[in-house]
Amino acid sequence: MSDERLGTIMSALDTPLVVVTAAETQERAGCLVGFHCQSSIEPARYCVRLSKANHTNRVVLCLTTEPVAVHTDGPFEPLRLSQAAHLEPGHSSQERHNPPTERAARPGTPGAPT
Questions:
Q1: pLDDT for the residue 86
Q2: How far apart are CA 91 and CA 93, in angstroms?
Q3: What residues does each domain of the chain span?
Q4: Which residues pair with 23 in a beta bridge?
Q5: Of 48, 87, 92, 113, which is most buried, counting CB atoms within 10 Å of its CB?
Q6: pTM to 2 decimals?
């Protein structure tokens, strides 16, 4: 199957989007994410996929998510992919940072150069 065909099918699903924010010491980041899902029932875990080119990815490197709070004021309509089609990404899909952060370059950090 071609990437174009997969893209056509996936965009037709009109998946909900979430905003991910992260902070580590003085570094803060956030981004709009389309690749996410619940990954465990007990214990409750949520999986978020971030592009290696995304600044937020570099801030949350080697992080496992555990929901600690959920807020809603009642029923809501999720932001859908079709509603965000006009947004431009802050990076191309081909961009990669090496190493992604100074933290990742530290010896003993998973993924750090040896």
A1: 87
A2: 7
A3: 3-105
A4: 28
A5: 48
A6: 0.60
